Amino acid sequence: MSTKYLISGGRLLNPHQDSLGPVVDILVADGLIQEVSESRIRCPDAEKIDATGLTVMPGLIDAHVHIFMNEMNIAALAGVPQTYAAAKSTKVIREMLHRGFTTVRDVAGGDYGMRDAEQAGYIESPRLFVGGKAISQTGGHGDFRGRAEADFGCACCTGLALFSTLADGVPEVIKATREQLRQGADHIKIMLSGGVASPNDPLDSIQYRNDEMQACVEEAERWGSYVCAHAYSDVAIRRAVVNGIRTIEHGNFVSAETAAMMAERGTFVVPTPIVHEANHRLGAASGKSPSSMEKNERVRVAGINALSVYKAAGVQIGFGTDLSMHTQSFQTEALRLTASVLGNADVIRSATVVNAKILRQEKKLGEIVPGAHADLLIVDGDPYADISVLVEADSKIIAGMKAGAFFKRQSSL
User: Fold this and answer.
1) Is 142 in a helix, a strand, or coil?
2) What is the pTM of this model?
3) CATH top class, domain 60-358
């Protein structure tokens, strides 16, 4: 018999609005939101939760994480067994959950095994949407070999091999896409430009030809899935949009013209300014090489400016962090950093209803409505007035629920 909860007295945070809503009763049963009402709900067999003076809001969604990428330098995963990487990831995702992120989308590395373990209840974790291995061209952002190394690595041996797979030319891209879909990927990630962490590709490099991108998109769409793309430069972003990529990851150097095209075509962007800010603050302690830190500074400055460009153009902006284990403590700080440009209401929308759209989980995640998953937070304060309510998760999140079960609940509630 499932546990029923009746949460009463809290003000509802509806992400579609710009301020808190009325005091409501919320009935939770069978892992779902059953009823939301301004009138009293009567359910004698439900456990009563008094949220008077508190805010009840949907759980947060982080649309750009890497659950296995938890070494100070990603290339160091080459010396880490996959079993160790998986064990280490359980700590990382448990802490994400306790920060209030009840759902995350892994965009390189996370696989069906971890997702199925979460769904079976073997690990304490946010809901996982996974893309399997990212697809990269030789020498691209997913190719972490040193220049003297010929082989990419054994898929049965290292944590690095979880992150990406190399594919060159249309037939290889088709096969790589089909292989990730066969293995249960919820989406496909493709690398279309240089990056900060990859050692050998120039940041401004343009990766994959049009026909290769089109092949990837066609295969994903025929499966009922979609493609997200790592892209920094404006040229890479524009090529992705033209070729049917659904979400742009990072997107730091976007122009106003490309942003307008994205808005017109309904392309999402998931900026990740916090990862570059974290590297900047940590300096050498970030584990990045001097060349990576040089690239990091360029994208850090551009990334904050890009938020204004996307907002002005009307692009649908998701929320992502892209952090590793030693920088995960910055995850909620990302809300404050993004809100400094977008405003509190917009960043709350990005981390709830916009990310739910990206996941194709509208009305199921990101809002508290009948029929949605009972993923919710009870917080002390008004996040619209002060985003620090969510940044200071340890003390301000009084309770957190995922699938109708509490993962956090202070004794006062």
Assistant:
1) coil
2) 0.96
3) alpha beta
